[in-house]
Amino acid sequence: MSKKYVVLTGGVGGAKLVLGLAQVAPPEDITVIVNTGDDFTHLGLYVSPDMDTLLYTLSAKANRTLGWGREDETWGFIEALRSLGGEDWFLLGDRDLALHILRTAALARGDTLSAVTRAFAKAWNVDVTMLPMSDDRVSTEVDTVEGVLPFQRYFVERRCAPVARSIAFEGATAARAAPGVIEAIQAPETHTILIAPSNPYLSVDPILAVPGIRTALAAARAPVVAISPIIAGKAVKGPTSKLMQELGVEATSTAIAMHYAGLLDGMIIDEQDIGSPPPLPYAATDTLMTDLDDRTRVAAAALALADRLAPSTNR
Ligand code: FO1
Fold it and tell me: Which CATH number covers residue 29?
């Protein structure tokens, strides 16, 4: 029986980990469950940022400078839009537009997000299975001291500046996990389940909020290993540590482990945090993923830890 791997992921950090994993495991044996809480309709187009970051990363088209969007991008559309007084706080590149336009048209015809994603992956020879967490709409909203902000308004337009009080996942309770999601977590051939070093509150929690996913993870036979997004008390990228502080949580790997309580069998932490280890089996490595070697090293460390833990016994 060939070993299968499942990854729960959000944005840029998650995509880097999946690319690393695809160097140490056959891509066709990897299933990625992707956060769609960041999705929104902008200028009439359905945008699915975490899905697209993963798709661009796995098809070697990702914009390395920005982390999101495409390489070799041009910005004629947004410049023209701006000159007409259109909203330009969310940048849609000329080449990037192709995905959003095709996806929007397919969804309007009644296709599911799963089907659209599958078609894009096939067109660009991506062998990793990319599953949205749900084909139903779930929208992350951040309650801030300035009021409730839809995710992209909070994250991109306001650069996470407003102090956050809580986070909600609108539509989650009625959402169904997309086809294949629960099955991948439960499959007897699933050897390891990884939680990427994505923001636990903004990128992983929306996935866990979809009914059935948390329960399936808690009951999974395969060990569940999280890669901590914290390095020396700070998040590598984005607002994780600021947000943790605002939510009254210390920015430590232990706090991340507590956040995922009941789900994890093990954790990868950064070697700089070895002085304050989490209260569960762990391994330490340099978790900063700058190049492909780093991504591969972090993925390999997670698989090695999972090998030590398999099958799941610690929850
Ligand atoms: N992030 C930004 O910081 N500014 C942008 O203008 C922006 C545009 C954008 C367009 C398409 C896309 O797929 C992603 C885009 N992102 C942008 C990234 C993004 O929305 C966030 O990084 C994620 O949602 C968080 O994971």
Answer: 3.40.50.10680
CA of 141 to the centre of ligand 1 (A): 16
Assigned domain for 287 exists: yes
81 Cβ contact partners less than 8 Å away, ≥ 6 residues apart: 43, 87, 88
Is the model's pTM score more than 0.85? yes
Say if ligand 1 is within 6 A of residue 39 CB: no
Atom of ligand 1 nearest to the CA of 159: 3
Residue 94 covered by a domain: no
DSSP assignment of 240-299: HHHHHHHTT--SSHHHHHHHTTTT-SEEEEEGGGTTS--SS-EEEE-----SHHHHHHHH
- Residue of minimum CA distance from atom 19 in ligand 1: 49
Ligand 1 atom with least separation from CA of 89:
6
Question: Taking Cα atoms as reference points, which of 245, 284, 243, 244 lies closest to residue 267?
Answer: 284
Place of tokens 């000159």: 83
Give the pLDDT confidence of 271-280 residue by residue, as tens digits: 999 988 999 9
Choosing from 9, 68, 151 the residue with most ligand 1 atoms within 8 A of its CB, the one to mutate for a pocket test is: 68
- 264 in any annotated domain: yes
Number of domains present in the structure of the chain: 1
Within a domain: 87: no
Q: Tell me the residue range of the domain where 16 lies.
A: 4-63+112-309
Q: Does residue 273 line the site of ligand 1, with CB under 6 A?
A: no
CA distance 116 to 46: 12
CB 4 within 8 A of CB 29: yes
pLDDT per residue as tens digits for the range 92-146: 999 999 999 999 999 999 999 999 999 999 999 999 999 999 999 999 999 999 9
For a mutational test of ligand 1's pocket, the pick from 53, 156, 158, 205, i.e. the residue with the most ligand atoms closer than 8 A to its C-beta, is 156
